[in-house]
Automatic annotation (TrEMBL):
Keyword line: Cobalt, Cytoplasm, Magnesium, Metal-binding, NAD, NADP, Oxidoreductase, Pyridoxine biosynthesis, Zinc
InterPro entries per record: PdxA (IPR037510), PdxA_fam (IPR005255)
Biological source species: Aromatoleum tolulyticum
Catalytic activity as recorded in UniProt: 4-(phosphooxy)-L-threonine + NAD(+) = 3-amino-2-oxopropyl phosphate + CO2 + NADH
One GO cellular component term: cytoplasm
Protein name from the UniProt record: 4-hydroxythreonine-4-phosphate dehydrogenase
Length: 328
């Protein structure tokens, strides 16, 4: 039908670190028959080079009725300096951040229904003199969001984290009643808003082995986690726990929940990544926009070889589309 594509939502996909696999992974988005317009943000010359002639790469034109078949639309953001596959250059750090800024501006204005991010290299951005700890923190700061929650989706699981990139020794002190309550409210709210769950069931892990074993292996479950769960259960939330992490991830227990809240990064993510690596999706909850991402890094050794697997990017796009419709 003429003009149909013009009415489709537009999903922004940032191409990430120009020396990494992001630009060539984005080329695989062409011709997939998505129910949205997927628009790649990046240097159009770079995207054409990394596409290797597999698809036509054309400038994004908002008024265009539809992109031709097997065509990739690119919203051009110019590189600061030429990029070489596999070779990092701190001079392009501002370019990487410009991709995020443009996608974020489009999401906030309503131009884009959401954003999907290809991987960036934190180290080279910091080498450029820009303090940067990751997409999640950057987007939180630039939207004025006081707390966001990282959740990975894959392998039939949704696993959110109470704490993320902290040394293990710092985790117990970081898990306060205030943090845990705020995290659970964000997780619950976005499961309702974006995942179509009217009464989400959340499985909450304990911090210590055997969930503290009645205080003999730690008192965080008694003094911090349980009081928060009891308070929120009183408001109607369906929360199970604190559960021993070593048995939480067995199929019988997982079947009783819609999402898991792990207390720290390596408590929950090794299980999920074992089940889904290469097809998992990182979701940032609590933002005023929809943002999903691949579950892998820049893979500099694969950049430019054409061997990088686009599976995680496809999954991130599919999840962003579903979240925008409120039924992920």
């Amino acid at each position: 039908m003429p003009g149909l594509a013009a009415r489709l939502p537009v999903l922004a996909v940032t191409s990430g670190e120009p020396a990494g696999v992001g630009p060539e992974l984005c080329a695989h988005l062409a011709g997939r028959g998505w129910p949205v317009r997927t628009v790649v943000l990046g240097d159009i010359g770079l995207i054409r080079e990394r596409a290797g002639g597999r698809v036509a790469v054309v400038p994004f034109e908002p008024a265009r009725a539809a992109a031709p078949a097997n065509t990739l639309e690119v919203l051009h953001v110019p590189l600061a300096v030429p990029a070489r596959a596999g070779t990092l250059d701190a001079a392009n750090a501002p370019y990487v951040l410009a991709l995020l800024d443009r996608a974020l501006a489009g999401c906030r204005s309503g131009e884009f229904a959401g954003m999907v991010t290809a991987p960036v290299h934190k180290g080279v951005i910091n080498d450029a003199g820009v303090p940067f700890s990751g997409h999640t923190e950057y987007l939180a700061e630039h939207t004025g969001t006081p707390l966001v929650v990282m959740m990975l989706v894959g392998g039939g699981m949704r696993v959110a984290l109470a704490t993320t990139h902290l040394p293990l020794a710092a985790v117990p002190a970081a898990i306060t009643r205030e943090l845990l309550e705020a995290t659970l409210r964000i997780l619950h709210g976005d499961l309702v808003r974006h995942f179509g769950l009217t009464a989400p069931r959340i499985l909450v892990a304990g911090l210590n082995p055997h969930a503290g074993e009645g205080g003999h292996m730690g008192r965080e479950e008694i003094e911090v986690i349980t009081p928060v769960l009891e308070k929120l259960r009183g408001e109607g939330m369906q929360l199970a726990g604190p559960l021993p992490a070593d048995t939480l991830f067995v199929p019988h227990t997982l079947e009783q929940g819609d999402a898991v809240l792990a207390m720290y990064h390596d408590q929950g993510l090794p299980v999920l990544k074992h089940a889904s690596f290469g097809g998992g999706v990182n979701v940032t909850l609590g933002l005023p926009i929809i943002r999903t991402s691949v579950d892998h890094g820049t893979a500099l050794d694969l950049a430019g070889t054409g061997k990088a697997d686009p599976g995680s990017l496809f999954a991130a796009v599919e999840l962003a589309i579903a979240m925008s419709r409120g039924r992920a």
